[in-house]
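Consider a concrete sample entry:
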Amino acid sequence: MTDLIQDVRAQLDSYREARRRFVTGAQGNLALVNTEWIVGDPSEGQRAFGVPGLWFPLPAGESGLRLEAAAGDGIRVDGVLVDGSVVVAGQDAERPSEVRFSDTVTGYVIASEEDTYALRVWDAESEGNREFGSIEAFDFDPDWVVQAAFTPIEGGRAIGVEHLKDNGVTRERVVPAEITFTKDGIDFSLTAFEDNGNLLLVYSDATSGDSTYGVGRFMKLVPDARQGGSGPGTVTLDFNRAYLPPCAFSYHFNCPMPPLENRLRVPVEAGEKNVLNTSGGLLH
């Protein structure tokens, strides 16, 4: 084994340990216990499952939700005990609000593309965290570190992307470039779309639903530095760093599904496989 491969293996081990710490964190993937959309008449309060207080939509164009709670409910917003009414700013605000319900239960407000808002609730002692054993993964395979061509698309290209819970309705995503490579005599053309400032590849392959999570896997991409500005360049696809989507850890996430061109017919035996419980079986 070359020193280079040993170094890559060591980096991958560190990456996987960081992934384990992330998913088991107080607001990690396993801790999400509810996503409650608060919509409708701004004058009508709604209850969110498992937490106290009344939650109200704000008028159109305003970020976040309004909360009404008594001091006895013990809710703190940005460190201040709520006794009356307060606006909880969304994650799309310049200064998003932080909500704490107890020592282990926290929350914040997320926005949809339609400018509606939901309360997300996290419990550091969730059932998922209590039952989590490990993230099963393939051994490192240097053959799945692939150099691909990265050809920018002027102005980007819009595609419709389905999400797990949207019943076939698509959301528009911008594809900034063509990603192409050849492996084992097969030509691949993949679509990665912009997602919260990142370039995200969502794909499935012949292992999906068999030895790996059925919905597919994710990979964040960073195009290599290009000479000549916006011209064609390259991107390294390290499938050993493919990771499971948040919905593999909690049913309360709504993950994007792989676009048709990213549903590979070959097995990609690299990267994360499944979420396992303490007994070594599937967590979900």
Summary: The chain has two helices and 18 strands.
